[in-house]
Every structure is written in structure tokens, then in C-alpha cells.
């Protein structure tokens, strides 16, 4: 990527998660120096502040076990509109979460804009979870486990935007990398839909670079736009403790930086989610600073450019 205009958008949503704290995520990224890190790399940065959810008429959740349904609907509509608008501007949006339910709005907004541009949208989902539950299949009722199923056009989500999703992401254009916790029904839905799933065993056996490279080659060959959604729990909790859904055995520090460096080298990424940072669970800002450091790698910081510091 060359020098470009980057737009930061805060989305302090925690309605999709099972515990409090993600509402503080956007400001934690700011405090950890995300704007300064990108400016130091030669990019122009604008911070649009924090979005608010769209006001929606109170509606009952289609199923009784769904939690904070109305709040998630409001956030989805607000983020969808924001993402679609930003995708039509010559900027690179970074959405500062907030829990992963925000991707229901960001991914679908960018998919709608990609359709208008006549280009396919690809999604790289860096996460310990596939977040491919439907409203019926989710056992917890926490809606941060459903955004990718919604974005892929699975049924039952018409209430999210108040109408059927007109431009879903082709499931074959979705790549989930680093997954290590999938519900049984999610597994069935993923296989049926044809989503690419690369779990930690595959990473152990083949290496994370060799798994990512073919996906990036396909994005390039099809002139695609690439949205990256980075969940804190993609990382091993030993290095990134500030997340409410810890799953042992995640990506290492070097694996995560390699992914970001390869994404930078590809020049394909057009938008980014940073999600599930819960500062209440962090250790002196350690996770927030690591996430900012990964963003630095995505935007061109090389290994030999990094100062020595303790995490």
C-alpha cells in the first residue's frame, strides 16, 4: 500500500457479546496510539469519532433466546450505511470495535458498495470462531456469533436491515483463518455453504503463509476488494488477554505479523475491522498495543523498523 487517507470509525458496540467491556474498545485503540502509528508511516488519518446505533422501532426478537436483538439491529443499520458510504470514497476505513456483531454492518455495507462497483468482495476472517451461526442455530443467543452467516446470505436475518440482504458475500469468497472453536451446527452450515476454513491444525502442519497465499492470489486474479476482520481472539490469549472469549492455542506473535505483512505486500486490502478488544480484561494496555502494532504491519511497518520494547 502506498500513502493513503485512512478513516477511523469507532463502533462501541457490546450488545452482541456475552459480557460487558467492549464498549471501551474504540477509545483503547486511540489511547494505544493507532492514529499516531499510522501517521508515522506516512499515511493521512482522520478520526470520525464514535458512531451511534440507528434508532429503530422496538421490535421483538424472532426467537426468545436472542440477546439485545434491537440494539444489534440498530448498530447493524448504522454501520451498514456508514460502510457503504465510505466504500465509495477514496479512503481506507478502519472500524474500531466493539464486539464482532459490528461486522454484520461493515461487511454487508462493503459488499453493497462492491456490487455497485462491479467487483467481488472477499472477506478474510481472522478469528478463533467462525461466527457462522444463524439466529436459530446459536445456542448462546449472543449475536456476535452470527455476523458472517448474515453477510453470506443465510436466511432468517431480514430484521437486521429491515429487508432481505440484496448483495450478500459469496460464501466461496470467505476465508476463515485461525479458527479453533466451531459449534456442530455451524460446522454443517460452513461445509454446506462452501466457506473456506483453515483451522489451527492446518496452520501447524502447513504454515500460516502457505495457507494465506492461495487466497490472496485468487482475490488478485478476480480483481476483488478485500475486507479483513481481525478479532482479538485470533491471537493466543497468552499474548492478547483482553478478550471475553479466550480459546487457547491461537496465532503467535510472529504468525499474526506475517499475516499482516503478507496482506500489506499484496496491496489488496480495502477495509478493516478490529474487534472484541475488552480493555477491562487487559494487562496495562498490552493487547491494545499489540493490535495497533499489527495494524502497523498491515500498513507497511517492517520488522527492522520496529523499536525494541517490552509487551
Automatic annotation (TrEMBL):
Q: What is its EC number?
A: 3.5.3.1
Pfam families cross-referenced by the UniProt entry: Arginase
Cofactor stoichiometry and binding remark: Binds 2 manganese ions per subunit.
Its top-level enzyme class, in one word, is hydrolase
Q: Which CDD domains match?
A: Arginase
Question: Keywords for this entry?
Answer: Arginine metabolism, Hydrolase, Manganese, Metal-binding
Q: What's the catalysed reaction? A: L-arginine + H2O = urea + L-ornithine
Listed pathway(s): Nitrogen metabolism; urea cycle; L-ornithine and urea from L-arginine: step 1/1
Cofactor or coenzyme needed: Mn(2+)
Against NCBIfam families, the record matches this protein to:
rocF_arginase
- Name under which the protein is recorded: Arginase
Q: What is the lineage of its organism?
A: Bacteria, Pseudomonadati, Pseudomonadota, Alphaproteobacteria, Hyphomicrobiales
Gene behind the chain: rocF
Amino acid at each position: 500500500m502506498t500513502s493513503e487517507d485512512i478513516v477511523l470509525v469507532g463502533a462501541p458496540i457490546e450488545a452482541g457479546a456475552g459480557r460487558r467491556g467492549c464498549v471501551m474498545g474504540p477509545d483503547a485503540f486511540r489511547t494505544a496510539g493507532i492514529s499516531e502509528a499510522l501517521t508515522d508511516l506516512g499515511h493521512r488519518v482522520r478520526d470520525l469519532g464514535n458512531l451511534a446505533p440507528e434508532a429503530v422501532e422496538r421490535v421483538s426478537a424472532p426467537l426468545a433466546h436472542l440477546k439485545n436483538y434491537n440494539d444489534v439491529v440498530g448498530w447493524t443499520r448504522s454501520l451498514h450505511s456508514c460502510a457503504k458510504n465510505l466504500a465509495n470514497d477514496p479512503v481506507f476505513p478502519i472500524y474500531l470495535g466493539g464486539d464482532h456483531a459490528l461486522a454484520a454492518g461493515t461487511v454487508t455495507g462493503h459488499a453493497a458498495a462492491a456490487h455497485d462497483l462491479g467487483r467481488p468482495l472477499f472477506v478474510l476472517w481472522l478469528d478463533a470462531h467462525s461466527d457462522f451461526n444463524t439466529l436459530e442455530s446459536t445456542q448462546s443467543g449472543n449475536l456476535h456469533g452470527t455476523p458472517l452467516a448474515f453477510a453470506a446470505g443465510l436466511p432468517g436475518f431480514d430484521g437486521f436491515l429491515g429487508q432481505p440482504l440484496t448483495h450478500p458475500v459469496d460464501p466461496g469468497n470467505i476465508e476463515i483463518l485461525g479458527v479453533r472453536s466451531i459449534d456442530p451446527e455451524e460446522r454443517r452450515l460452513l461445509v454446506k455453504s462452501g466457506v473456506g476454513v483453515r483451522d489451527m491444525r492446518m496452520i501447524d502442519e502447513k504454515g500460516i503463509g502457505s495457507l494465506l497465499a492461495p487466497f490472496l492470489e485468487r482475490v488478485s486474479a478476480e480483481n476483488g476488494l478485500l475486507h479483513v476482520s481481525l478479532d482479538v481472539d485470533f491471537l493466543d490469549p497468552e499474548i492478547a488477554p483482553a478478550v471475553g472469549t479466550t480459546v487457547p492455542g491461537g496465532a503467535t506473535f510472529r504468525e499474526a505479523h506475517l499475516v499482516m505483512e503478507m496482506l500489506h505486500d499484496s496491496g489488496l486490502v480495502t477495509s478493516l475491522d478490529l474487534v472484541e478488544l475488552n480493555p477491562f480484561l487487559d494487562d496495562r494496555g498490552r493487547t491494545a498495543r499489540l493490535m495497533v502494532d499489527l495494524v502497523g504491519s498491515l500498513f507497511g511497518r517492517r520488522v527492522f523498523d520496529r523499536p525494541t520494547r517490552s509487551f
